[in-house]
Each structure stands twice: as C-alpha cells, then as structure tokens.
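Design a sequence for this backbone.
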C-alpha cells in the first residue's frame, strides 16, 4: 500500500477518515499495518501490501470471491480471451487516455490481466478487487516487473472505500456484467463516478448481446465456475452509462464486449472536448 494513497482511503461503513498504524514498511510502501475508522473505531488490516477494506455487510448482487477468482483465472487461460484481450487492451488505452499525471483506479482488477498494461503510465495506480487471492497474484506480477507506484485494496465495488473526487481516471473491465442485480450495476457505476474527479474520465466494458448471442438465447447465465453473467444490448449498455456519465463513445469489440467511456455526471461537471 503506497503511503501517498492513505489520505484517499475511507471507512466503507461510515465514510470517515482512517488512522494509520504501521508495523512494517519498505520504501514508500506499507507492508503490514492497521487502519482504524475515526468514527466507530473499526479496524482494517493491511496485509502483504494489501489494504482490506470490506464493509461489515456485503452488498447485494456482488459476486462471491471464489467464483470471481475462478473466472479471473479463466479469463487468462481461455483461448477466446487470449484472442480478444489485445483488442480490449487497445480499446481501454484509447478510452482512458492515461498520462503520467493521472491517479488511476481499476475496479475489479482480478489477477492483473489488464493491470500490467497500465500500471507503468500513471502517477499512482490503485488495483481494487473483492478477492484477496486475486490481489496477491496481481501484486506479485506488478512488483516482480519493478513497478513501484501501485497499491492494492480489497473492497466491495458498490462501496468503494475512497473519498469523493480521489482519482482522475477510473476503469473496470467486465465486472459490471457479473453483478446479479440491475440495481447493483447502477450502484457500482455511481460509486465509480463519485470517486472520479469531475474533469476526469471513466471507462468500462461489459458483455454484448448481439445477433449471435440472441441466436443462442444467451442473454444471461452462469459460467462453469459458478459466476453469474448478463449480456447487454447496445441500448441497455448506453442507457446504463448515461445514467451516471456524459457518454463520449460506446463501441463493440469483436462481437464480444461493449467498451464505453465518458465524464462523470456531477453538478459541477465540466465537459472536456
């Protein structure tokens, strides 16, 4: 956990600031420590560089960590995913438009499948996921590659433990397709918009429901690891984004996913053109 990220962290239950006690650190990274809520005193551990900031009550519709962990592994090893990944990475690069000044939040990083392609660019990169095991693998990949400015946070994507306007860029790859309730998709996107600066950018992807999926009657289902999924028509995906973003573009990649991006919709938002 990068020490510079600590001021952005908040208690997922109360939204209050957190007091930090460090037991072990290295360079600017906290290896072991404790975060304590200033309201209520609940404590959250930092273990093996990873801050655990899960709420006391999990949100409805958020996938269980074990099926999500299994799907994260499948996304790396499946033939079709390997085929599609370069196009997905390219689409996110174009959508997010990272610079060396950005503070980036990745919601649902999994095992770091996309993280490795972005973490060398921004000033700070925070990888968030519900699975501690996923974060361990993501951490090892990034640290072994020599990148120094990445942090890892275990958290609920519907209760992101960060202050409002913390990040200049926020993105999420496919996690929104695995939320089991439509309201959960809106809650996740609302949280992404809340923690993103008004002049920042948000990008996300979700499974597409096109003619081929319609022919298979594959609107929703369960992956072999037990993880729920939902596919979106272009209209559904665009309407979801428009409820929280000033949408700039929605595009389809290889009949597989929608990738959309825009500016968070806030009272003080300024559209950058």
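Sequence:
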């Amino acid at each position: 956990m990068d020490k510079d990220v600590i001021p952005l962290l908040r208690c997922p239950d109360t939204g209050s600031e957190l007091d930090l006690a460090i037991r072990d650190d290295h360079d600017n990274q906290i290896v072991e420590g404790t975060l304590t809520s200033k309201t209520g005193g609940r404590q959250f551990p930092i273990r093996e560089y990873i801050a655990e900031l899960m709420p006391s009550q999990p949100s409805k519709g958020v996938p269980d960590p074990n099926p999500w962990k299994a799907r994260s592994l499948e996304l790396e090893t499946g033939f079709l995913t390997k085929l599609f990944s370069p196009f997905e990475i390219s689409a996110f690069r174009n959508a997010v438009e990272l610079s060396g000044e950005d503070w980036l939040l990745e919601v649902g990083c999994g095992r770091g499948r996309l993280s490795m392609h972005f973490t060398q660019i921004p000033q700070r990169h925070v990888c968030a996921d519900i699975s501690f095991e996923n974060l361990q693998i993501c951490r090892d990949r990034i640290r072994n590659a020599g990148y120094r400015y990445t942090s890892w946070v275990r958290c609920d994507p519907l209760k992101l433990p960060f202050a409002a306007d913390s990040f200049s860029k926020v993105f999420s790859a496919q996690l929104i397709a695995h939320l089991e309730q439509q309201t959960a998709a809106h809650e996740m996107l609302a949280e992404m918009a809340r923690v993103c600066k008004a002049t920042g950018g948000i990008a996300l992807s979700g499974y597409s429901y096109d003619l081929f999926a319609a022919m298979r009657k594959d609107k929703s289902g369960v992956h072999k690891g037990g993880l729920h999924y939902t596919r979106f028509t272009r209209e559904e995906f665009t309407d979801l984004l428009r409820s929280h973003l000033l949408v700039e573009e929605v595009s389809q990649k290889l009949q597989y996913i929608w990738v959309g991006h825009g500016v968070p919709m806030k009272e003080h938002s300024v559209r950058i053109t």
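The two ends are 34 Å apart (CA to CA).
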